Amino acid sequence: xxxxxxxxxxxxxxxxxxxxxxxxxxxxxxxxxxxxxxxxxxxxxxxxxxxxxxxxxxxxxxxxxxxxxxxxxxxxxxxxxxxxxxxxxxxxxxxxxxxxxxxxxxxxxxxxxxxxxxxxxxxxxxxxxxxxxxxxxxxxxxxxxxxxxxxxxxxxxxxxxxxxxxxxxxxxxxxxxxxxxxxxxxxxxxxxxxxxxxxxxxxxxxxxxxxxxxxxxxxxxxxxxxxxxxxxxxxxxxxxxxxxxxxxxxxxxxxxxxxxxxxxxxxxxxxxxxxxx
Length: 277
What we know:
By secondary structure, the protein is mainly beta. It has helices at 30-44, 47-52, and strands at residues 60-62, 65-69, 74-84, 87-96, 103-116, 119-131, 134-150, 157-168, 173-183, 188-197, 202-205, 216-218.
């Protein structure tokens, strides 16, 4: 029979319930511990196995260092890169409340770069929203915040900047807000709020509530012979009331000859041809 040991306690040390609050450590949230455990487990896998776990929709996090703030339930990462499919978010620092991407908001600061199939964003600060374990939206702020997208079927690149840019990944729209400027590589448009559809490659301007914002558009026609310039018409239509222009490639007409009577060319006087008398 196993003997039970007496419950020995140092009489000089008070019981846990009698200790002051300052001596108690804050409880670590279970979700935070689970997230850190998954992060450490993933970092300990061989490279080949980590690559095999990157299925569609999987969020991959890579950082130079991380700090866990148990008291405020926050995580801080430095030199971080988050990848999901073709979406890549990189920054010098990121803050989040746990590693649950089902419904979370991350704040990125310092040289923020967001790359997708539809374009790229650059700024000093960004807030990225994760919903249902996917990147749902991003709001970037900077001086200025910038956006660019190579245009389909063209060598030109669409670019824009504003005080803030909202990127809706599901709708595929970029909203430039505050002193917005956008170019398709040649023409420019300015306004306080511009919405660019990155898939249809079209832009719309809108007025902010309570303001009468105006839009300015700069159009730069293409030079003749430049790629994309309209070709001249091959069969010009003569303007009414003007003589048609002779074809310079056509041979010159033969000079009219005088008639046998010696009358000048085109002079009807003396022409008896067809004279009823």
